Amino acid sequence: MDITIRPARFRAPEETGEDDAEAVRRLVRALAQVQEAADYVTGSVDDLRRDGSGERPYFRAMIAERADGTAVGLAVYYFVYSTWAGRPKLYVEDLYVDGDLRGTGLGRRLMASLARVAIDHGCVKLDLSVKTDNKARDFYSRLGLTRSGTWLPYTVGGSDLESLASSG
After folding, report:
1. Which range among 68-72, 101-105, 144-148 shows the weakest confidence by mean pLDDT?
2. SUPFAM superfamilies, from UniProt (predicted)?
3. pTM of this prediction?
């Protein structure tokens, strides 16, 4: 398999030149379609450029690409901090491999790349969340990831986030 994994490049929206923002957005939309959630993808290419570039980007990404430059896999991640461990953790926001390449080891290669990034940054863990009906749960288990005990992810957004912000 002639596929290379490399860090994604993002330029600031006001800059010119090539970057990976359009490929990342395309792969994020493909992931959302697989999860039957395409309507939830509202971020733009410029959003990715703004938040993925600069001295302190909000996120980073790894791109898997064919020799011709076609992006066929994606891992989006960022760092969080564990106050309990006193160390950073790497959180995987999105992991996607094009359908025709699933089962070829590309997903494992992307996860191994993320594990190396985590180790290089002194992370104590690599975390991610998976929907209960996601078929990739078996894949993550084969890689050694386990469900995090009794922890359940919670989220707040939209008008509920605004209500919470104005409540205190």
Report:
1. 144-148
2. Acyl-CoA N-acyltransferases (Nat)
3. 0.90
**Rounded distance between C-alpha atoms, residue 168 and residue 136, angstroms:** 40
Residue with tokens 């302190």: 56
Confidence (pLDDT) at 1: 66
Its sign, for the CA torsion 100, 105, 111, 116, is negative
Long-range CB contacts (within 8 A, 24+) of 65-72: 65/3, 65/4, 65/6, 65/23, 66/2, 66/3, 67/2, 67/3, 67/4, 71/20, 71/23, 71/24, 71/26, 71/27, 72/3, 72/97, 72/98, 72/101, 72/106
Q: Select which of 40, 81, 140, 154 is catalytic.
A: 140
Residue with tokens 């430059």: 69
CA distance 129 to 121: 21
- Angle at CA 149, nearest 5°, toward 145 and 151? 105
142, amino acid identity: R
| Lowest mean per-residue pLDDT among 30-44, 46-60, 144-158 | 144-158
What is the pLDDT at residue 64?
A: 98
DSSP bridge pairs for 88: 81
Smallest CA-to-CA distance from 5 within 25, 15, 20 is with 20
